[in-house]
Amino acid sequence: MDKIWDKTKIGNIELPHRLAMAPMTRSRAQEDGTPGELAALYYAQRASLGLLITEGAQPSDDGQGYLMTPGIYTEKHIEGWKKVTSAVHEAGGYIYIQLMHAGRVSHPDNTPHHRQPVAPSAIAPGIETFTATGMQEIPVPRELSKEEIQTTIQDYRKAAAAAIAAGADGVEIHGANGYLINQFIGENSNTRTDEYGGSIENRARFAIEVAKAVVDEIGPERTGFRISPGTPLGGIQDGEQGPELYRYLTKELAKLNLAYLHVMHLGNDELLQDIRSLWTNPLLVNRAGRTIDNISVDIDSGLADLAPVGVWSLANPDFVERLKAGAPLNEADPATFYGGGSKGYTDYPTLKELEHQESK
């Protein structure tokens, strides 16, 4: 694991090692989308991970998919996030706010305006989502007009500016996991016949235009982008052209000189190798199902520059210290992943706290 402790740079920030905190939905924001009272503590506790990528924050009312998720498009949101970014910086960490427009993976009961979800095409994902009254089938979304697509791109731009105003070191554009950008990429979720549908270039167009708008607003050195090739979340199917589309998208994003590309990797190793060869800036690889013993494999082989940590960091605020010491990890409690208060959020003990309790 020697290389994992090497310093590295992301954009214009220097990180102490090759680990990072992966984005994870926690559903503990206030009803208006302002980060919850405990969010600053939660992220600051994990500052030793260096680069913290936050849970997805919606860039607009239309962008909200789940209950109690944070937003980053109003003055209240900005003020709420300032508490989080200040706490992380005081603890020695850096923080990127993830911009996540859920698109069709939503329900009228979950959004501030209670309107029909929006998407590239009027095709339901065929899945259920959690609402205040329990699990409900996601309805057929409304197809975005070309004018609305441009408005949505500007929503990302404004959200990126708001994130920087809130003190974030940068933003990660969420182009993965079945959400809006991924819906434009998906073969079965995008049946448009205009310049945003059909060919590889057209299906990738929205992703590229969002990235360009954000880069134009806050600079490439503060912009990351997340993809999840071949991931069927949200009912998405990439189709036979999927790998080629991601090669094309990677090449186009590389021209923008982004701070990083973040890959949620589920198993197409040949494609991942191709992405690595096409992407010269830092590459983050979140490899599903890896064991703790394999956490540095992609870094050791030169395939990745950083290894983002998800559930392990959720349950272990001092994950870096535990990994260095070869210490056992806290087990995560799935019942507290989404919603609630401090339990399963800010109350996971550190090694020092455990040692103090044992010495009493």
From TrEMBL:
Domain NADH:flavin oxidoreductase/NADH oxidase N-terminal: 9-330
Origin: domain of life: Bacteria
Pfam families linked: Oxidored_FMN
SUPFAM superfamilies referenced in this protein's UniProt entry, alphabetically: FMN-linked oxidoreductases (SSF51395)
The protein's name in its UniProt record: Alkene reductase
